[in-house]
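Throughout our pipeline, every protein is held as a single compact record rather than as scattered files. This encoding replaces a full spatial description with a residue-level series of whole-number codes. The remainder of this section carries one protein's record, kept here as part of the documentation.
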Amino acid sequence: MKLINNLMIQIMKKRILSIVMVAVIAVTAGWNVYRSESKVALSDLGLANVEALASCEKLLGTCWMNYSTWECCDAGNYACAPCD
């Protein structure tokens, strides 16, 4: 009977330890997600720079892009298409 009690105690200790470890991992992951969701505010100048870098250059009022390489290109080029 004593042997069975000792085995039951060991099993319960392992279960409690595993539950505590899972809880610690879940809390740590949740904390990291919470911290990583901080919002970064850009100034108007920064937003204007991002917009300028993301858009093609305007050639004669029309933006031209090579959609296979995702690069701006000259109007009349074979692979170029208007992106407006």
